[in-house]
Write a structure and sequence with these properties.
It is built from 12 helices and 8 strands. It is of the alpha/beta class and about 270 residues long. It has a single domain, classed as Alpha-Beta Barrel (TIM Barrel). α2 packs parallel to α3, α3 packs parallel to α4 and α4 crosses α5. The chain is globular, with a radius of gyration of 19 Å.
């Protein structure tokens, strides 16, 4: 009997169905060891980053394997809204695709067509891929499972995206998809002159968050949020209290930096 790798559960969708809060970690180092540690300690998912780190399609596959081995759900933030890059992540076994800078319904439709197999989308097919077990046995079952279990997560990271949030949410399905809120990019986009300091708690951030949360409650599409503006437990609890359903922590590089800096403070300060 052919092994069916696509039967692995999506832990994010499972947790949401139980009314629980899935916890995830951004991974920038493309270190299989660190991904395994995150999984073994109990995180529900990892977001393997291809946008702000040097993860290639080749290293991405190894990162996904490490996530699977350690029992955590692998998701990929692709570098751009490109059908080829999205297909590479799907075929490698990703169970969630983050699409950066989704500004409007046209961007969302383009990504959805690339993520979903026919008849829902236009994802190109090849039965000899890793996600299907390198075989066309059970191919139809694989496509059906992928369409229902691989999450589409548009990232709203621009003022334009906040303005078009209603039409983006309208394309998503409850119980399968989610929306990410990129407050950092929005905050930086509000700078108006050279040398101006970033206002991490700019008044518009609260306005944007309130609007998106209201749409989330109305549509049943959960928000993936980050501890803001700091990666600490107090900020995490505040974000969850504000309506975030899925919590994503700052990248592994950030935590390693903090650990090293604190060592220096304690021993050299």
């Amino acid at each position: 009997m052919t092994y069916k790798p696509f039967t692995r559960p999506n832990k994010v969708l499972e947790a949401l169905a139980k009314g629980e809060t899935p916890l995830g970690m951004q991974m920038y180092t493309h270190s299989e060891d660190l991904i395994e540690i995150v999984g073994y300690t109990g995180f529900d998912f990892v977001m393997i980053d291809m946008e702000h780190s040097r993860v290639s399609p080749e290293t991405m596959v190894h990162c996904i394997r490490a996530a699977e081995v350690s029992g955590t759900t692998p998701m990929i933030r692709v570098s751009e809204n490109s059908p080829g890059i999205i297909r590479a992540a799907i075929e490698a076994g990703a169970q969630g695709i983050f699409i950066p800078h989704t500004r409007n319904a046209e961007d969302a439709r383009k990504a959805l067509e690339a993520i979903r197999y026919p008849p829902e989308g236009k994802c190109g097919i090849c039965p000899a891929i890793r996600a299907s077990g390198y075989s066309q046995d059970y191919w139809e079952e694989y496509m059906e499972t992928a369409n229902s279990q691989v999450m589409f997560i548009p990232l709203l990271e621009d003022v334009e995206a906040i303005e078009n949030a209603e039409e983006i949410f309208a394309l998503l399905k409850p119980g399968r998809d989610a929306v990410g809120l990129g407050l950092g990019d929005i905050t930086n986009s509000l700078l108006t002159r050279p040398g101006e300091k970033v206002q991490w708690q700019h008044p518009y951030i609260k306005e944007a968050s309130t609007k998106v949360m209201a749409i989330s409650e109305k549509t049943g599409i959960p928000i993936i949020g980050m501890a803001w503006p700091k990666a600490d437990l107090a900020s995490a609890r505040a974000v969850l209290a504000g309506g975030t359903r899925i919590l994503l922590f700052f990248p592994d590089t950030h935590f390693w930096y903090e650990i090293c800096r604190n060592i220096i403070k304690e021993l050299k300060g």
